Amino acid sequence: MKKRLTGIAALTAIGALALSGCAGGGGGGDDAPIKIGSVNSISGAATFPEASEAAQAVFDRVNAEGGVNGHQIEYKTIDDKGDPATATAAARELVGSDEVVALVGGASLIECEINQDYYAQENVLSMPGIGVDTGCFNTPNIAPVNLGPFNDMTLTLLNGSENLGLEDICVLLEIAGSTEPAYRAGIERWTEITGKEPMYVDASVPYGGSDYTPYIVKAKQSGCEAIAVNAVEPDAIGQVKAAQAQGWDDVTFLFLTSVYSENFAEALDWTGAGVHVPAEFYPFTEENEANDDWRELMTENDIALTSFSQGGYLAAMNFVEVLEGMDGDITRESVTEALQNMEPIENPMVAFPYQFTDIAAQEFQPGGWPVVLESGSNAWKQSADDWLMIPSS
Amino acid sequence: MNGALLQGALAGLASGGLYAVLAVTLTLMSRLVRVVNFAQAATGMFAAFSAVWLASSLGLPVWLATVAGVVIGALLSAVIGWIAATWLSESSVTLRSAMTVAPLLMLISLSFILFGNKPQPFSPLLSGAAFTAAGVVVSWVTVVMVILAIVVAAACALLLQRTTIGTRLRALSERPTTAELIGIAAKPLSIGVWAVTGAISAITIMVIAPSQSNDAVSLSMLIIPASAAALLGGFRRLDLAVVGGLALGMITGIVAQLPSVQFVRNFIPFLFIVLLLLWSQRKEVWGEAR
């Protein structure tokens, strides 16, 4: 009996070795698939499913048209559930055992900060569709296609002070994890550019709070003309409603891209003097040829039209362009090299060209397109006719 | 400075009234059917989301959708009550309470699956300002919540003291076996209590949801401050549950105005629970307390 077990174990081991040997080939053969992965928060406290769905749609289209130089793309997305342990395991599964050539088109609440050292160690690059946490913006191995919440903070304040001419802006911050210094840096950058300072910064506004009346009352009583908040959608709705209940009719809301959605517009009839947002990508709530291909592909695949699906789409498109320009074997090493030496890619959906190393080093000029949700309209519209750029310092 | 504190207290009344109503339903459940129902707010949330769906997708008029929502809340709660009464009638309070975590998680997941993970477009049942005091607008929603909490608590106290049903309910909660032996129908009565509290939760959530953050998780998690409020009355006294809810809301509002104590803001219900537990255990001798 014992002998037989040992035999089975040995066979299993040989089988496993053979299998992993095949998998380890990673692009060695002429028609071997190109493996790409992404880590996403699809279930849990905050969910971003559209980015990787959009990337998947792009890769499916490339595959249907014959793949990249004859290679099909194999795209694997893993849900990290917003949980650090799962995010760690997900990265090891993709990079360690599936041997992906790069990570593309993901959107996770926490992944970058947790996995950046591992990606550096394995020399694999990541191009998230939407980078969320601080870790997406401070390492040479990760370069998201979006400009990130911290640049977004500077932009939304610029939009308020320069485009709308607001003087007394109060900043309310909802802090998750270790993001406070990054948001504060975003506010300081605005001060450096404009010489203006917020009336006050309250960095203790609760995340996912049920009633924001006390914070709104405080802001109203302090004489703020506008409040700039980094709230996610449900919280932002709560804050607008609390201001409505207080009869604060002349308040302007300066929010970040995270609230720019059809759903948000439908949920709010009243928005005071307006909700102003610098959209990170070309506004999608109005038809425009910049968004045509993206809109068509998303509608075809039944994917929600949001900034997240714009980000996932752009990451996948950029990556395919880089792959198509490559000669020779497509391996992790060659892909990493190609990304690091890529020519900048221009796209009318984004304010700035995408070049991996420049974006990873945060050496680029971020910009967004101002949009507004006015009271009673239930629909977003553009409030400027060009990108609002952060002046290079 | 005092002006700011008064403003904070008034601003906090909005959530205080809400905590008070939920705390009253929690206290009722604990007294009458021996359970701390963690799914109390989630039941209301699910009922309210169903009502929004009925109004927006099936085109029902708002009043009809609202009535349907209350019925759904009552039925949902009755089903959970039926499970408790059928399989866990002899179990300890701890076990029965732990059971309610399952419907809490299930209702949150189910609402994600059925209604998506975004806040819902609620049309307000009540709106506008009731009055303005110290520069703070107190809305009708707030006024109605505070009144609802007091009325429900008073009505339940009267019902329990003055009516036959009340006597039977008390008998059932204090000596369940004896009550059953003398012929009181335990199961229908207790399921009835579940259904009534379910309906009250549904009404509460439908009234407040249009005027605040209204995604599934924030609404379901109202159970935490509500439990803290109910703890003031030891899950036994209705009047103290009302006071606890209002006090908790007002303290939260006041603390929001004080920059020096900002760091405790997010932990107020938790601090409230810890302090109350320490206070209630103050005369216990180490070792004898357990």
Question: Summary?
Answer:
The complex is a heterodimer of chains A (393) and B (290). Chain A has 393 residues and is an alpha/beta fold.
Written overview of the protein:
The complex is a heterodimer of chains A (393) and B (290). With 393 residues, chain A is α/β, with parallel strands linked by helices. In chain A, 41% of the residues lie in helices and 13% in strands. Chain A has 13 helices and 14 strands. Chain A has helices at 2-23, 50-64, 84-97, 111-122, 148-163, 180-194, 213-221, 233-245, 262-267, 292-300, 307-324, 332-340, 356-360; strands at 34-40, 73-79, 102-104, 107-108, 126-127, 130-131, 169-172, 201-202, 226-229, 252-254, 275-279, 367-373, 380-382, 388-389. In chain A, strands 7, 8, 9, 10, 11, 12, 13 and 14 form an eight-stranded mixed sheet that branches. Chain A has a four-stranded parallel sheet with strand order 2-1-3-5, sandwiched between helices. In chain A, strands 4-6 form a two-stranded parallel ribbon. Residues 15-28 of chain A have low confidence and may be disordered. The longest helix of chain A has 22 residues, at 2-23. In chain B, helix 1 crosses helix 11 (223-232), helix 2 (40-56) runs antiparallel to helix 3 (62-87) and helix 11 packs parallel to helix 13 (268-280). A two-stranded antiparallel ribbon of chain B has the order 1-2. In chain B, a hairpin with a 2-residue loop joins strand 1 and strand 2 (136-139). By secondary structure, chain B is mainly alpha-helical. Chain B contains 13 helices and two strands; from the N terminus they run αααααββαααααααα. The interface between A and B is large, with 33 and 42 residues.
List the total number of helices of chain B.
13
Helical stretch count of chain A?
A: 13
**Principal-axes shape call of chain B:** globular
Please state the oligomeric state of the protein chains shown: heterodimer
Q: Which series of helices and strands of chain B comes N to C?
A: HHHHHEEHHHHHHHH
Protein name (chain A): ABC transporter substrate-binding protein
Signal peptide (chain A): 1-25
Keywords (chain A): Signal
Domain Leucine-binding protein (chain A): 33-350
